[in-house]
Amino acid sequence: MNHDESRSLYDRALSVLAGGVNSSVRATQPYPFFVERGDGAHVIDADGNRYIDYVMGYGPLLYGHDAPDPVQSAVQKHAAAGPMYGAPTEIEVEHAEFVARHVPSVEMLRFVNSGTEATVSAVRLARGVTDRDKIVVMQGGYHGAQESTLVEGGPGGAKPSTPGIPSSFADHTIPVPFNDEETVREVFEEHGEDIAAVLTEPILANTGIVQPVDGYLEALRDVTEAHGALLIFDEVITGFRVGGLQCAQGKFGVTPDLTTFGKIIGGGFPVGAVGGKAELVEQFTPAGDVFQSGTFSGHPVTMAAGHEYLKYAAENDVYEHVDRLGEKLRAGITDILEEQAPEYTVVGTDSMFKTVFTRHGVAERADACADGCSQVESCPNYDACPKTGADVSKAETDRWERVFWQEMKDRGVFLTANQFESQFVSYAHTDEDIEETLEAYKAAL
Ligand SMILES: Cc1ncc(COP(=O)(O)O)c(C=O)c1O
Ligand SMILES: N[C@H](C=O)CCC(=O)O
Q1: Which residues carry this modification: N6-(pyridoxal phosphate)lysine (predicted)?
Q2: DSSP-derived 3-state class of residue 130
Q3: 234 lines ligand 1 (CB under 6 A)
């Protein structure tokens, strides 16, 4: 493959964009390919190379790069008619009504512009309504580029995971291991009166993919309720990706107090949202006292795209298609790994998948998972599944990024360069794409 044009664009980018990119995960080594356009399940780079795309914008693109006609018409109509006003529009109401009809925890919403803004706003709301400062988060969980959750450490003490955040912020954050009910109960015994909320992805999708063991989300529901704290599910990735229109909370049957959304809910445009019980969400200004505001929030083009996206999914076989192909891919990779790399693990569910490069031996991992993973039926390797962020962090990140990712890219398959990010199947992917991907896996491994 020739990459001259991408290389020259990257050289230019390095002079005017920090690290040559606008989001860190895009800076692949030795240089990223620059995308010229998308085509269904594929992207075409500036040198004309074509790749089957499983990055899918890091999750938003449920339909791949060709949105269905109603989405495209709605986007064009709203872009031509405005595109925005600083005044409310009907499409915001319609989109909110649709989401509230389908997602169990949602009665009312506030739309914002990114997943980060959604989690920032949800944490502020939880602190505002409970009049408490501390939040519990999961080690290995990700909630965007926000001060309260960019922490490392354990329940005994957290510190910021990046320069630029005062350590006093981390004093209010308690990271606990995912899937560890005992630790979270101990934390509540010790700090229960100061904890505003537990904030967790229902599936660790940025460090994983790690699924909740049987009863874990229920335990979080139970312990938060018992201590007057809120349970917040961050469904920025899982929302409208896992569990169809009911999201992961519908699939697992656990209803949080607040849910944060992003990605798919905006139909491929910048978006975020906080949803939940009306009595909570109404505490945002102007109805309540917890300040929240945004010039672009509820942007008509985004609302129209998101609304048509979800309506189309409600009326067509979208989730059947993406989940079937997700399963086919996971099963196919599992077979290949059995032959060629039995120490690696396939993880995922619905239309999400990942191969985790752990070399700790199935027996060891099976021991570690013996009491937990048996409920994850959709995972073909459930007895070897990682259970915590720490399990996943043992993976061979360097081998993934420097060898496997490059080999797949050279074979025309675009995966996330970061070992820990999920990959996504879209409605535009076909059985032929999956078969081609499996052939590439065989050769690359
Ligand atoms: C679970 C989760 N929460 C929050 C975010 C932040 O969203 P955004 O990048 O739109 O700010 C992301 C991903 O970026 C995410 O995966
Ligand atoms: N981990 C992020 C979201 O899923 C990756 C997207 C980004 O931050 O650019």
Answers
A1: 263
A2: helix
A3: yes
Provide the H-helix boundaries in 108-193.
Answer: 115-130, 167-170, 181-191
Nearest CA to 213 out of 350, 394, 374, 346 is that of 374
pLDDT band at 364 (very low <50, low <70, confident <90, very high): very low
| Residue 25 Cα to ligand 2 middle (Å) | 7
Closest ligand to C-alpha of residue 263 is: 1
Please write the tens of the pLDDT for every residue from 72-118: 999 999 999 999 999 999 999 999 999 999 999 999 999 999 999 99
Catalytic residue among 51, 53, 263, 350: 263
The answer, yes or no, to whether the previous bond of 68 is cis (omega within 30 of 0) is: no
Does ligand 2 have an atom closer than 6 angstroms to the CB of 58?
Answer: yes
Mean pLDDT of the chain: 93
Cβ of 116 below 6 Å from ligand 1: yes
> How far apart are the C-alpha atoms of 254 and 276, rounded to whole Å?
13
Ligand whose nearest atom lies closest to the CA of 260: 1
- Ligand 1 site, residue 235, Cβ cutoff 6 A: no
Specify the pTM. Answer: 0.94
332 lines ligand 1 (CB under 6 A): no
131 is catalytic: no
Mark whether 263 is an active-site residue.
Answer: yes
Q: What is the pLDDT of residues 6-58, one digit of tens each?
A: 999 999 999 999 999 999 999 998 999 999 999 999 999 999 999 999 999 99
Q: Which single residue is written with the structure tokens 């699924």?
A: 211
The yes-or-no answer on residue 323 being catalytic is no
Chain position carrying tokens 């720490």: 390
Q: Which has the closest alpha carbon to 112: 329, 309, 303, 240?
A: 303
